[in-house]
Prior knowledge:
Layout: E1 8-16, E2 19-27, E3 32-34, E4 46-47, H1 54-65, E5 70-76, H2 82-92, E6 95-109, H3 115-120, H4 124-133, E7 138-142, H5 147-158, H6 168-180, E8 184-191, E9 194-204, E10 207-215, H7 224-239, E11 244-249, H8 255-258, E12 261-272, H9 279-296
Parallel strand pairs: 10-11
Antiparallel strand pairs: 1-2, 2-3, 2-4, 5-12, 6-11, 6-12, 7-8, 8-9, 9-10
Amino acid sequence: MLETGIDRPLFAMAQDGDQAVALPLADHSRRLTPLSNWYAFTWAPMATAGDQSPALLGSLAKDLARRTPAMVLDKLPDEDGTASRLETAFRKAGWLVQREICDTNHVLPVGGRSYAQFLADRPGALRTTLKRKAKKVDVELFTRFNAEAWDEYEAVYRESWKPEEGDPALLRRFAMAEGGAGRIRFGLARHDGVVIAAQFWTVEGGTAYIHKLAHRESAKPLSAGTTLTAALFAEVIDNDGVELVDFGTGNDPYKRDWMETIRPRYRLTMWRRENPRNWPVIARSWLRQLVSRRRDV
């Protein structure tokens, strides 16, 4: 799904027989960026049967040099080699490539544990909070999209600590589509009949994705978000049997209580050296890196 007002889509594709690789991109006139949206966890090339051949990526990198003077690819994973493959392909095609960490991804490899076993491995302070506060809220879980429940989520979000939503209409359409496919895992927590926390998860391919969570600031002492998170972990581990839980991007401290593995997300900023318009930008980037290295010494 795409956000409204997105720049012109550009699908760059290379093919050799039955094998093909495509880069879904957005054209911003003087640079190309991933064709993505506010809520995407990652971006990566699309390939037939998962094959991202170096030769095909190299062909794309050479062809794109004739299309644009600069590219910025971010939200790139590298636990599967995505960032490294792209970096190598574009360097070999003559691009100047700057690689940096742009975000953090917290995940939980379940490792065959039950929810009870997983909970026993959580920090003592978290388990104590659950014991003390869980009885003060009522939890309701949904595995199908429910319009009234979604309205409650939006109301809670408006009164939460979260920043303004990037594209709420897009998020709702995504939730509806996931609900229709049976992949949604949605939860509400109530106190005295009033919804004070809400969370939106999905389950697909053995992975549970935590997309959105919010609680009313006025109800923070009840720790309803913690209780709701625990209920959804129980749902996806014991009932769905997921192998991995993905907490998306962001290095929020509370994620460390629930997750056990941290994976970086990378940004590749790439320029054509021969384009004079890129020279000032390249010079500024080089100076920033030089200053940063000196600070680290």
